[in-house]
Amino acid sequence: MRHFGTLLLLSALLAALAQQVESASATSFKINARPFRFVLPSLTFTTPEGFASVRCPVTLEGSLHSGVIAKVARSLIGHITNQSFGSCTGGTVRTYGESLPWHVQYDSFSTALPNIRSVTMRVVGMMVLVTPTGLGSCSYRTDNASPARFRMSLYGGEVIGLTAVESATIPSATFFCPSGVLRGSGQATRRDGGPLVVGLAGGTLGSIRAQEDPSRMIRGQRQVTITLYNVATAPAHELYVKPGRFELGESRLFNLYADGCAEALLLPSETGCPIIIEYIGEEGVRPKTIDWVVDYYNGSTELETKRIGITAE
Question: H or E stretch including 17?
C-alpha cells in the first residue's frame, strides 16, 4: 500500500535509535557516577530480637571501580574509603579506621519489567565495636559469609532510597555476644550530592519486525494499522530507555491510537503491538511524519530525548 508500504524504513529507523542509545553487555549494569555517598540518619545496631539497640547517624563514602557493573554475585565492584558516625543514642559505636577500605560487592537485583526496582550490594570488612548503655561491648566484623547488605530502591532508573537489609545477620567476634543486624534507611547519591542513575546495560530496539495490515474504510474514515513485533534476544528494557510515545505532530487531520505500544516494544513478545492511524479526507491524504519519541539517560543524570521520524510513503 502506498501510504505505509515502505516498512523497511520503519525498521531502519528503529535500528538507528538502537545506535543512538548507549549499550553494552546485557549481563551488566550501568551507573552514572563512580564516587558515591550513603547517608543513613539513624542506622540501628541491634540483635535480631531487637535487644540492646544503638542508633547512630552514619555516612559512608567510596568509589566504584567502573561505571559498568557485571551482574556476578559477590564480585568486587568498589570500596568504601571513608566513614563517619555521629552522636549515638542507646550506647556508643566505635569504628576501626584500620579496617578501611571496606569492600563493596554486587549481590542481586529485582525487577518489575520493564523497570529495575532495586539493586543490593554487600559490604565486607566493616568492623565496629558496639557498646549498649549499661552492657558490655561486642565486636562485629562483616566478611564474605556474613556481609552487611544495603538495598538501593529505584524509580525510573533513579535511586530514590537506601535500606539496610535486616535479614543479613552478622556474628560477633566477642565471646557470649549475640549476632547483630543493621536496620535503617536513607539515601544513596553521587558524592557531589547529585542523583545516582542505574540501568541495565545492553538490549536493542533494532530487532523489530513490522507488518502492515490492509487499510479499510470505516464510516468515511480511512484506517491503516501497522503491527510491530519485538523479536530481540536482548530486550530493550535493558537499556537506559524510558517508555516512549508516538506523535503525529500538530496535524489535526489524523487520529493516532497506540496505547501501550511504545512501552510494549521494550520487551520481546510474540504478541504484536498495533499502531492505528485514522485520517479523514480525499484518498492520498496522509500524515507527513509519525514520530516515535523516546527518552533515555545518556550516562549522566540528564534525560535526553530522541525523536525518530517515520515518514509515510
Answer: helix 7-20
Taking only the tens place, the pLDDT of each residue in 221-240 is: 677 777 777 776 655 544 55
Cell numbers 492520498 correspond to what residue?
284
Chain segment 268-303, per-residue pLDDT in tens: 677 777 887 777 655 544 555 667 776 665 444 456
Please give the helix or strand (H or E) that residue 12 lies within, else none: helix 7-20
Cβ-contact 97, 125 below 8 angstroms:
no
Predicted TM-score of the model (pTM): 0.63
| Cα distance between residue 243 and residue 16, in whole Å | 17
CA distance 161 to 179: 26
CA nearest to 18, candidates 271, 235, 284: 235
Architecture of domain 7-23+203-311: Sandwich (2.60)
Residue 213: Cβ within 10 Å count: 15
Residue whose cell numbers read 499502531: 275
